[in-house]
């Protein structure tokens, strides 16, 4: 399994980008419009990746739910079987937001969201 990214729900995308660029030293590597009210920005190169999501719908989210750790798996179906055999409930998904990615989310024992994702189409 490979660590993919940490997802953070942010209230102000530009303020957050400025912080992660100027203070942390990460570079913007991709920006995605995921609908009329959702913007996603990926920062970081190599092993360090952060995904910032800004959406009016999510701005009032409980801060305890505003962080997700993402991990890449070879087979999402195998991981779902693995999770189900342990009696862990899937909280979200599986979801396929675009043709090249499919994922599902569980919670760790502390309530932190853990995302397992499979890149599709050889990506």
TrEMBL record:
Its EC number is 4.4.1.5. One of its GO terms (molecular function) is lactoylglutathione lyase activity. It is an enzyme of class 4 (lyase). SUPFAM superfamilies: Glyoxalase/Bleomycin resistance protein/Dihydroxybiphenyl dioxygenase. CDD domains: VOC. Residues 2-119 form the VOC domain. This is Lactoylglutathione lyase. The lineage of its organism: Bacteria, Bacillati, Bacillota, Tissierellia, Sedimentibacter. Keywords: Lyase, Metal-binding. It comes from Sedimentibacter acidaminivorans. InterPro entries: Fosfomycin_Res_Enzymes, Glyas_Bleomycin-R_OHBP_Dase, Glyas_Fos-R_dOase_dom, VOC_core. PROSITE patterns: VOC (PS51819). The keyword Iron does not apply. The keyword Metal-binding applies. Signal peptide: none annotated.
């Amino acid at each position: 399994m490979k660590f993919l990214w940490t997802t953070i729900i942010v209230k102000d995308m530009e303020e957050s980008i400025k912080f992660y660029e100027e203070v942390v030293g990460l570079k913007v590597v991709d920006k995605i419009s995921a609908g009329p009210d959702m913007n996603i920005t990926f920062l970081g190169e190599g092993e360090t990746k952060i995904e910032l999501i800004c959406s009016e719908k999510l701005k009032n989210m409980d801060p305890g739910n505003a962080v997700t750790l993402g991990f890449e798996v070879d087979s999402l179906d195998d991981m779902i079987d693995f999770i189900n055999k342990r009696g862990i409930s899937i909280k979200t998904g599986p979801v396929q937001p675009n043709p090249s990615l499919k994922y599902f989310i569980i919670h760790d024992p502390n309530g932190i969201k853990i995302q397992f994702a499979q890149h599709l189409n050889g990506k």
